[in-house]
Design goal:
Elements: H1 30-45, H2 61-74, E1 84-89, E2 92-97, H3 98-107
Antiparallel strand pairs: 1-2
Length: 109
């Protein structure tokens, strides 16, 4: 009953065991590792050449037709499908809530 509560710093000791394992690379691998390190160093000395080509392919005519077909189906009034609208652009087809859709449509004008 007379003990203290709380998280104060105690005076107890804590034993910690640490194990260090050292492994040496077998000498017969040295020539191969040296060659790899030289190749890596040569690559690091080269200037960075950024990729300047297209990063993504354009949509094919078939993909564009598929987007259009999905858009025309999605714009129909379908029973049980309420509360969303569909918008398409160069990136594809997206479904939005009606509130988001109203904002998107009002910003187009």
């Amino acid at each position: 009953m007379g003990g203290s509560s709380g998280g104060g710093g105690g005076t107890g000791t804590q034993n910690v065991n640490t194990t260090v394992t050292q492994t040496n690379i077998p000498e017969e691998f040295y020539p191969y590792l040296q060659k790899q390190m030289q190749m890596a160093d040569a690559l690091l000395q080269q200037d960075y050449i950024p990729y300047e080509g297209e990063r993504t392919a354009a949509y094919t005519p078939e993909q564009q037709a598929a987007f259009q077909g999905i858009t025309s189906i999605a714009q129909r009034s379908l029973p049980g499908v309420t509360g969303i609208c569909w918008q398409s652009d160069s990136r594809g087809l997206f479904a939005y809530s009606w509130n988001v859709c109203r904002r998107l449509c009002s910003n187009k004008g």
